[in-house]
Design a protein that fits this description.
Strand content: over 45%
Strand order of the largest sheet: 1-10-9-3-7-6
Largest sheet: 6 strands, mixed
Number of helices: 2
Low-confidence stretches: none
Number of domains: 1
CATH superfamily: sav2460 like domains
CATH class: Mainly Beta
CATH architecture: Sandwich
Number of strands: 12
Helix content: under 10%
Shape: globular
CATH topology: Lipoxygenase-1
Structural class: mainly beta
Radius of gyration: 15 Å
């Protein structure tokens, strides 16, 4: 059974999944508030080292991390359809040791605010069992165009997840960096 996370909640991924995780999928889904209106949200993953310096960025314009441990499945321009609209697949066993934080963000590429989005969520799934480990509902709307969803981070040899849900401004992930660094 998945844990429904609340803003600020932290979980141990291995404890929640009941096993050592190798691959996880961060899924993002959403619907426009007004039927027939397209909203282009973009999921991204920023990799940071222990000094809180960005070392790589995976998003619709760069679908694979330099080391090959993280893959974005592609851009969804509308939010139409059921389930995940965008996915980022993370092979935790291949993430370089120098990477301490993986931060997942969402931004509205065309500048629509989160007031125009409904049924938005991010979720973490164990890739091998397809079991949903955690789900975070991106509720509350807001006049922001970006959101820092969650971070995965290494702590005493295991990966943990921290649900953030912090609003930010920016139509692309790079513009969210000033808002991300204080959260690491």
């Amino acid at each position: 059974m998945a844990i429904n996370l609340v803003k600020g909640q932290k979980i141990s991924l291995e404890k929640e999944s009941g096993q050592s995780l190798a691959k996880v999928v961060m899924g993002l889904g959403w619907d426009p508030v007004k039927a027939g209106k397209s909203i282009d949200l973009d999921a991204s993953c920023v990799l940071f080292d222990e000094d809180k310096k960005p070392v790589d960025l995976v998003y619709f314009g760069s679908l694979k991390s330099k080391d090959g441990s993280i893959t974005h499945t592609g851009d969804n321009l509308t939010g139409e359809g059921e389930g995940d609209d965008e996915q980022i697949i993370v092979d935790l066993t291949r993430v370089p040791a120098k990477v301490k934080y993986l931060v997942f963000t969402v931004n509205s590429y065309q500048g629509q605010t989160f007031n125009e989005i409904q049924n938005a969520f991010c979720r973490l799934v164990d890739s091998s069992s397809q079991k949903e480990i955690a789900r975070y509902t991106l509720s509350g709307g807001g006049s922001n165009t970006g959101l820092i969803m969650a971070k995965l981070y290494r702590h005493q040899g295991e990966w943990k997840m921290h649900a953030l849900g912090d609003p930010a401004s920016g139509d692309v992930a790079e513009k969210l960096l000033p808002s991300i660094i204080p959260l690491l």
